[in-house]
Amino acid sequence: MKTRLNSLHLAVLFVPLVFLATLARGSESVDDWKDIIRSSPYWVSQGVYDNIVTIRRWVLKESGYCSDSERHILYNMRGQFLGYMNDGDDRKDTQKRLNDTRARLAAEGRADTWAQGSEGTTGYPFALACDQPHVNLDEAMARYLGTLPADLVWGAWDDLSFASADSPQSLHNALLYVYNTRKQQQRINLPRDLIRYLGGQLLIESGGRQRAHSAANARGILQLSPAALQDCRIQPANYWHRLAQMDCALRLMHQNASNLQPAFEERFGHLPQAKQDRLFTLMLVQAYHGGANRVRTLLDDDSLAKPAAYFAQHHDSYTAGDIAFGMIFHNLGRDRFGLASLYYVADVQLATEALCNSPKLKDTDFCS
Fold it and tell me: Could you give the CA distance from residue 162 to residue 242 in angstroms, rounded to a whole number?
């Protein structure tokens, strides 16, 4: 306990002077929101994972401060909820209200500082719209668990053969079948918890809809791009094939894990094994969303890896989730890293929790 307190004391001692200057500005507006990110000490990431998951829960569940969808909620660098505002009559009016609310939060001392946002420009405190496209978790879980006959699956892909026309099974059973088969064949090597999170990803990516098709041309239950499908040697006629999609997603996860593992072990190999596995799983979820090469730069790039170096040294003071999110938070605005990556992982976490709170799965090995 004394060691932990000492490390926290040191973290406070080394708060950058520019951050202290930011605090002193109070209600003054900062010209560039990225200056706030760059001047913030790493310790602000303590608790950020749980905080972001909480505000995303309000969005996905249409609950809490998002029980009224025509609102924005505002939060700080730690993901802490600061307040909400009702939307305006149009985007321009809503943006003005957001900036007025930011200025008021700073003037009241509820925010350390603020920065104006505009169309296409992030402001601070960060704002999250309650009204945005999101999956209906209850409906998605029903499809995944095969509540209706139309949601059941059977078929063959490559050397895989699952269920039958006379006895189709759920997407969940299909995912377990593909995963266990490829694991036994030693064709994948992934953290133990990854399969559970892949189930959550399936809900978030497509809501369990076989013919889900995004504006970016991602397709199927796991929203794979044409390039990814081609890498998996899937012909266009089979792009929507659910077993093929699962097989391809696991293959991509394995490739991402292989690409990330060396840099991850060098940076975080000294962490307790359970914490390593949890952090690596969350990074694989991020890599599925934003690309393994970009996620790897958070570990080994001279500039982008500075937060990782700090968290590796002071890991006792942070959860695995805080570290995963902290590496992104302190690089916001660099190399296209944005809040969307954090929202995606938070949504997958919520979907995974929903699966493992369901009566069908909560007492199974899948959720243990």
Answer: 11
Write out the DSSP string of 104-173: HHHHTTSSS-EE--BTTB--BSEEEESSS----HHHHHHHHTT-SGGG-B-EEETTEEE--SSS-B-HHH
**CA dist., res. 126 & res. 339, Å (int):** 9
Amino acid at 211: R
Sequence-distant (≥ 6) Cβ neighbours of residue 230 within 8 angstroms? none
Spatial separation of the C-alpha atoms in residues 143 and 206, rounded to whole Å: 10
Residue that is written with structure tokens 């995606």 in the block = 344
Measured distance CA(322)–CA(327) in Å, rounded: 8
Helix/strand/coil percentages in the chain, nearest 5: 55, 10, 35
The type of residue at 123 is G
Beta bridge partners of 169: 153
List, in sequence order, every residue forming a beta bridge with 153; answer none if it has no partner. 169
pLDDT, one tens digit for every residue, the chain (368 residues)? 434 344 433 333 333 333 434 444 456 788 889 999 999 999 999 999 999 999 999 999 999 999 999 999 999 999 999 999 999 999 999 999 999 999 999 999 999 999 999 988 899 999 999 998 778 999 999 999 999 998 999 999 999 999 999 999 999 999 999 999 999 999 999 999 999 999 999 999 999 999 999 988 999 999 999 999 999 999 999 999 999 999 999 999 999 999 999 999 999 999 999 999 999 999 999 999 999 999 999 999 999 999 999 999 999 999 999 999 999 999 999 988 999 999 999 999 999 999 999 999 999 999 98
Cα–Cα distance between 28 and 38 in angstroms, integer? Answer: 17
Query: Cα angle at 343 between 267 and 67, to 5 degrees?
Result: 150
Show the tokens assigned to 334.
Answer: 């660099």
Give the torsion through C-alpha atoms of 274, 280, 283, 284, to 10 deg. Answer: -120
- Residue (of 256, 280, 141) closest to 204 by Cα position: 141
Distance of alpha carbon 99 from the chain centroid: 26
Contact predicate 239/212, CB 8 Å: no
Structure tokens at 204: 């978030």
